[in-house]
Specification:
The radius of gyration is 30 Å and the shape is rod-shaped. It contains four helices and no strands. Helix 1 runs antiparallel to helix 2. It has a domain at about 5-110. It starts with 5 loop residues before the first helix and ends in a 64-residue tail after the last helix. The longest helix has 27 residues, at about 5-30. It has helices at about 5-30, 40-55, 55-75, 80-110. By secondary structure, it is mostly helical.
């Protein structure tokens, strides 16, 4: 079984929660009216659903605005009651807050397009670098240690003494 990324899991939960909230609001509309929810409202709900499936938070927010407008127009036309509109508004408000949280999390996630990526420091090539002042040259007065234990492999250098692995430090 492939591992599921936390962000994908939260988006899936968001989509299911959204459909449950909005669908429940529209089912409540169907219970109170004999004709069911207005077509404009169900079309706007379908647009919200499509945006969620496409994982497009911006389109989802736009679709929620359209859903609110459709609900307002349906109340004005007498196709929805104020209670039905209130249910749709509450569900849309909760979904909007969740979408904005997901969008903000995506914007601040490592590797996202809006997160500045650290510029890697160039490593000097041994063939082209003439040995600048920050490189230590072996001192001719000091004896060559010759073959000995490899650094980090001597006694007292067990797994607990190794220190952090490269790339596993705190995230900026």
């Amino acid at each position: 079984m492939s591992p599921v990324r936390p962000r994908a899991r939260s988006r899936g939960a968001l989509a299911l929660g959204t459909l449950a909230l909005l669908g429940g609001g529209l089912l409540g509309c169907a219970e109170e009216t004999t004709t069911g929810p207005p077509t404009a409202v169900t079309d706007a709900l379908a647009a919200v659903d499509e945006a969620l499936v496409a994982r497009d938070a911006d389109a989802g927010l736009d679709a929620l605005d359209a859903l609110r407008e459709a609900a307002d127009e349906a109340v004005d036309a007498g196709e929805l009651t104020a209670a039905e509109q209130e249910r749709i508004e509450r569900a849309a408000d909760r979904l909007e807050a969740a979408l904005e949280a997901v969008e903000e999390a995506d914007d601040t996630a490592p590797g996202s397009s809006t997160t500045p990526t650290p510029t890697p420091t160039p490593t000097p090539s041994p063939s082209t670098d003439a040995g600048g002042p920050d490189e230590e040259e072996p001192d001719e007065d000091e004896p060559d240690e010759g073959p000995g234990p490899k650094p980090g492999k001597g006694p007292g250098q067990g797994p607990a003494d190794k220190g952090p692995k490269p790339g596993k430090g705190p995230k900026p």
